[in-house]
User: Fold this.
Amino acid sequence: MAKWFNAGLIIATVAFASCSEAQHETSATMGTTKKDWGEVDGKQVYLYTLTNKAGDVVTISNYGGTITSWISPDKNGNKSSIIIGFDSLSTYRQNPPYFGALVGRYGNRIGKAQFTLNGTTYKLAANNGPNSLHGGIKGFDKVVWDATVPDSTQPSITLKYLSKDGEEGYPGNLDVTVVYTLSDDDGLKIEYTATTDKATPVNLTNHSYFNLTGSVKNKILDHYLQIDADRYTPVDPTLIPTGELKAVKGTPFDFTTAKKIGQDFSAVPGGYDHNFVLNRKDSSLQKVATLSDSVSGRTLEVYTTEPGLQFYTGNFLDGKFTNHDGNPLLVNTALCMETQHFPDSPNKPDFPSTILEPGQTYHSITEYKLSVK
Ligand code: GLA
Assistant:
């Protein structure tokens, strides 16, 4: 306990820290600290700082459960954030495209913004052309979660949110818990659990955008990526899967061995924004992707229990927002690797089911593991 901040001590330490310098001092110590970050919907918003033994620092807000930065040293010891984000809550309130956010109740798209379950058709908001994207108009990325700091041996926060029956058109009161934990070997683990009182689709993910160089002056097209997926789900012009599970072999979607993202990029109109069908025999936590960059020497491995990975190359980034490093977020300056069930599963009976029944517990784990050499 000696070097450790427990929840009570954190509040005592930070509640009286009125200037950012004081907060930087507290954040340099291993553990979890928090500071006031504003107010949304009459609820207090905080920014939590998780610092591990290695000195990596991850900041997460209970607004949208958003990871706002992950600061780590590159191969030369220079520290920068590998996750895109901003320093102020007001920028997140301008609805950036899900930077770092928790996404739910249904990550990615549901076709024609509707699905039928047990004979009832549920209508959702069409917030992306004819489709529903990332949980609707006010998804889990735009709500204030209840946060607590667990009495854990590792820097961690627990977020809870009750999504009410009928919220954004979905059936059932869905009780969601998300635990973020930063390990000493630079693994950022996200553990999701949920229960419901009516059958409902659930597909939770985190929408962090990465640029391993730490500067969005560098496009991510020079990063190398390997994805353990022999198949992907081709999409229609509105980005809804056609239902086919297509072999990646001989296509630009073949990342089975590490490949420069830019290598076949011009052969993918609009850029990569596709769900990869991960090779797996069961739902154990397994390594599914490896991203690396020679400029920084950083490597990021993705582990998950999920069957799919949405690889998105920031095709819609248009320079409207400016990253921590002061540079505009232009097209292809960051990428996402969103672990998930496949898009539009509620309308695709052949895809792995996303339906959570009363009495069942939704449980999903994803870990992003960073190293440098
Ligand atoms: C996901 C989608 C993309 C885009 C982004 C957010 O990755 O697949 O099409 O909507 O979210 O901009």
About this structure: Residues 97-98, 108, 133, 239, 273, 310, 312, 316, 336, 338 surround alpha-D-galactopyranose (CB under 6 Å). Helices lie at 7-15, 20-27, 89-92. Residues 1-27 have pLDDT under 50 and may be disordered. DSSP finds three helices and 28 strands in the chain.
